[in-house]
Amino acid sequence: MKKKATAGLFLCVIWALLTGCAEFPRQEPADTAPVSSESNSSAIQREPELSAPSEIQHEPESSALSEEAVQVQTAIIPEQILDGETGEIHYSCYLPENYDESTEYPLMMVMPGYDMMWFGEESSGSNLNWRGFLCWTELPEDMIVVSAQLTDWHETSAKQAIELTEYFLDHFSVDESRVYAAGYSAGGETMSQAVSMRPDLYAAYLHGASQWDGEYPPIAENGVAVYIFMAENDEYYGSERARDAYQGLYDAYESTGWTQDEISAVLQIQTPDNEWFAERNITGNYHGGGNVMFEETSILEWIVSHSKEGEMQ
């Protein structure tokens, strides 16, 4: 009997210790403690002029811009969301300072490379300071510029690029004969598909440091102008892919009945060597250096000189 009492007392002590421990909260080490939303937001730097005004209402089903919002804010409008048929489309856009819905503006849809795609909130707005986005806003002619942060470089993103294009055509004052596209690296893979899927939408396309994943015949059949830019020594794709794309497009135009002179007016290729890049202070990483095409005014002007009406601007 004494042994049973001792055993019972021992079990009671163990139970008290266990239940007592449960009353103390778990302490996380300082280096793994959750980061506050305030400190986390500082990871993405925002220029003062990029702050979205309170007048722009974000509807629960979509935060895409409305025409009412346009009356409040122009210039760069960051980090918008369009609820698309295939999911959320994250994008930023630029509207000319004196945007007037009675005036029709050219529209540029430009897609960045892998490191500026959408990987969650921490990547939001990573394309805002990209020259591929900003360069079009600095041209003498006012135009609307849109850059999306898509999630891949395959058919889904191509469809989302098209859907975003159509959204701006439907909701903003766009010159439908002057809708342009540009893509760098992964963005080029996406836009080469989008442009060939809906060649009726786009007048010209700048294909930079990328491989061509779209079809060739639809481009020629719809007279879409294409400028291909790739470093001769691009480390990722290699310039041979640029030449293959050029030849595929050239053959498609030729099969459609275009003459050599007519083709040269709508199809260009540039594969600069290391010396060309060195003159622009780029001496390595020629794939990343391909972004310099957005600093070449002659290339930008060539793109926006085309229209669906078949006339050079």
UniProtKB/TrEMBL annotation:
One matching Pfam family: Peptidase_S9
Superkingdom classification of source: Bacteria
UniProt entry tagged with the keyword Signal: yes
The entry's keywords: Signal
GO BP of this protein: proteolysis
Residue ranges occupied by any Peptidase S9 prolyl oligopeptidase catalytic domain in the UniProt entry: 152-210
Composition-biased stretches (Polar residues): 34-44
InterPro entries on file: AB_hydrolase_fold, Peptidase_S9_cat
Cited Gene3D superfamilies: alpha/beta hydrolase
Protein name according to UniProt: Prolyl oligopeptidase family serine peptidase
